[in-house]
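worker-03 picked up job from queue 'complexes'. Input manifest follows; two sequence lines, order preserved.
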Amino acid sequence: MSADLTDDSVIRFARGVRLQHDRVRERWIIQAPERAFIPDPIAAEVLRLVDGTRTLGQIIADLASRFAAPVDVIGRDVHVMVSDLMTRQVLVA
Amino acid sequence: MTETILSPMSLLAELTHRCPLQCPYCSNPLALEPRKNELSTAEWISVLDQAAEMGVLQVHFSGGEPMSRPDLPALIRHAVGLGLYTNLITSGVLLNEKTFPALVEAGLDHVQLSFQDIDTANAEHVGGMKGAQARKIEAARLVAADGMPLTLNFVIYRENAERVPQMLEAALQMGARRVEIAHTQYYGWGLANREALMPTAAQLEQTTEAVEAARKKYEGRLTIDYVTPDYYADRPKPCMGGWGRRFINISPSGRVLPCHAAETIPNVAFPDVRHDTLDHIWREAPLFTMFRGTDWMPQPCRSCDQREKDWGGCRCQALALAGDAAATDPVCSRAPDHERIKAVLDTLPAEPPPFRYRRYARATDEVG
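worker-03 finished. Artifact:
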């Protein structure tokens, strides 16, 4: 499935999954069916840009400019991360 | 040493013990709560407010059959408004095209639907309700058609263990995203029916292999959670992730418990939300502090390198099998009472005895 993932793919959360700020523990969490994941800080930055309208390419460009990092390096990492989260049924493209 | 008190993550709201089914492995206590003792809508709303304030992230509406409560949509809507993740744990027999839209409208996040078996005749024999299977299949269809994530829960026992591959295939066909293949846990009614339900070691091995094969086959399409019967394990399970660490259970009458079987613990008061706040109970009630952390532990737990991994296993199981809730869980091969587990497994009857069905002690309590 993740083989279909390109920079033009529009990424969104699977139904029943969301990113939420946990104000008691002061961290981001992924709420999912009967489990909550804690994204690492980089994953949280990526997931905050997932809104069902942005493409993967737009998300990568945004991160590259904000963190002043090369697009190809960020792009590779984000592709791997998004593929993994698709396998875990957190994201869909 | 003072134990660190974490904020609870998860709340199991047992709205009622009433249920159209009578499964002999039900996790409810043997003494079922009659309807007249159930918390009101306003009392549940206050529980949800307090839970969210304390840091609870997910609320699981359960029972009995939570859909027996007409205020379920209102409670879901309130929980959603608080940012809680809402999960409905249901038998599905009351979930139909008349009742489901109100749950969708309320903002329900997820449904966990239980099946007694994939074989209809045996499923209805175990649940004690004719026609239940067709209703469950229709419930699954409605949830999947809506697009709401669906988990199917299959409880595994001696009579259905061989059908795990068919259960997993059926789950995929029914549009489930997750499946729980959960061996019976031997508390409450499950403990009362242990001789009838306990699988053999060979059956356990077979189900484990079926799950491992299916995980490869369905990767990315179906998440499979697998729960084994801990009688066959060498190390105990980290019950509830540790006593009073992550999990709160509220009984239909508002008792606040560290797990759904905790009402078996003797010589301790059961705190309830009608008389105290949830936060105060969580922090201070003896029922929560008595087994929190590691200070309470006997040997061999106290000096064991696993003590903050398995938290000494399960208190209710220690009570049920060793006669002492403060003992090391007898499942552990290092426990002084480990022989008792072996004795149970070595004396399983060749022919399973008839079930003792989950029922109210007095038929008059059951009406409604």
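worker-03 released lock.
Chain A has a mean pLDDT of 91.
Residues 45 and 63 of chain A are 8 Å apart (CA to CA).
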